[in-house]
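Demo today. Your pick:
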Amino acid sequence: MSTARPSPGSPSWTIRLVLEAESIDFRPAWKPMHLQRVFRDCRVRSGAVSEELFARGLCLPSGTAMTEGDLGRVVEGVRRTGRAGCRVPGSVSGVS
């Protein structure tokens, strides 16, 4: 899966609702280790960035088995949420 982080002011729940309605698989971003129960008593040097990514980030489908049609569905689903509400790292050939 690839990760995406909605821009400030564009709540990730909006993107989640659209993707869910389109039956597009996604997951919340991974939970930082320092927030997991097993590590709660461990020392944390800094966690603000990982906490922000966990709060707003999404993991979107990606992989070599995806067809151009699959990729187009995911891209269009994200675009439907506001055309500029999600910053996805990297670029996809043929998709702007």
